[in-house]
Design a protein that fits this description.
Helix 1 (4-22) crosses helix 4. The chain has 190 residues and is mostly helical. The radius of gyration is 19 Å and the shape is elongated. The N and C termini lie far apart (64 Å). It contains nine helices and no strands. Residues 185-190 have low confidence and may be disordered.
Length: 190
Amino acid sequence: MPHASDTRQSIIDAVLRIIGQDGIAAVTNRRIAKQAGVSLGSVTYHFTTQHELLRESLLHFVAEETRHFTTLADACTDESFDIGQAAEVVAQVAGGNAFDSRHIAPFELYVQAGRDARLRAAAAECFAAYDLLAARILGRLGVPDPERLAGVAVALVFGQQLRRLATGAPAEDLVDTLLILTKFTPTQAP
């Protein structure tokens, strides 16, 4: 018999897959139970409301993203970090060429956080990790005032990712755009 924490995690993973495949509106207890391979009663036992399901899914996603992006940021502290390594990190962030449900789910969750103030703190935590990585990369590349520009770089990444999602543009466009950004400093901008 599966452990309660395993069942709970299976449910959360199923919610994220469903959100990535068909959006938040497609999240129903029956569909979650089927995707997670658990009974309908297990879903309602572990999560009494839809809001709790979404909140816990977002918190799980945030914890994973924060851990992943903090690890990437920590790897950007090497004194020999260069533009080539920056391009590799950006390519990792871009997530390859395919946009699967795992890449789509965050957009849905962040839109939901925009509608629900109770989810914003979790979203803010994730963006702090994104900003940390961006500041580390920009700083290592010698861009002045990297902390101030980190939010702009993160917004650019999200915009490019959204563009990729909507148009099928290649991941290389994101890498190219970010590398262009590093060439401009506030004193060099037109």
